[in-house]
Amino acid sequence: MAVEKYLGRLSGPLLDRIDLHLEVPSVPYEELSKLTDGTSSRTMRESVDKARAVQAERFGRAGGVNSRMTPREMRKYAVPDAGGRSLLQTAMDSLGLSARAHDRILRVARTIADLEGSENLSEGHISEAINYRTLDRKLWER
Fold first, then answer.
1. What is the C-alpha to C-alpha distance for residues 106 and 121, in angstroms, rounded to an integer?
2. CA-CA distance, 90 to 115, in Å (whole number)?
3. Could you give the CA distance from residue 142 to residue 134 in angstroms, rounded to a whole number?
4. Helix (H, G, I), strand (E, B) or coil at 121
5. Which stretches of the chain score pLDDT less than 70?
6. How do the domains of the chain map onto residue ranges?
7. Nearest 5°: phi and psi at 42?
8. How big is the CA angle at 132 (ends 130 and 135), to the nearest 5 degrees?
9. Which CATH architecture has domain 67-141?
10. φ and ψ at 32, to 5 degrees?
11. CB atoms within 10 A of CB 90
């Protein structure tokens, strides 16, 4: 109840300016105490470093990152395949997303593709990026 009250205070335009909306569920002790070989911090860091290098090369400048793509750069580098376009259109229509949310989804999807080492923006990348917009869905469900 308190979470819903808090979410009610957040405006759509404010949420549009936040790239990732995530709910992080509590993790039971049993899961935390398991000894598993998940992705190590070192491996994750290497993946991020590679993606950042791809982005710096793409934009021709150090510090050039997907989150700062201009509209012109987005039309060049953040173009999803046919399945991705269809999925994005469906999400826009069904969730009532704004143009700003649309652009943020494309930027996040481009980053996901970079982390995977993919030049193309697929339906899977778009799907994952849309899933990071949980607050958009919660506001729509009210």
1. 9
2. 25
3. 13
4. strand
5. 1-13, 35-37, 135-142
6. 67-141
7. -65, -45
8. 100
9. Orthogonal Bundle (1.10)
10. -65, -30
11. 11
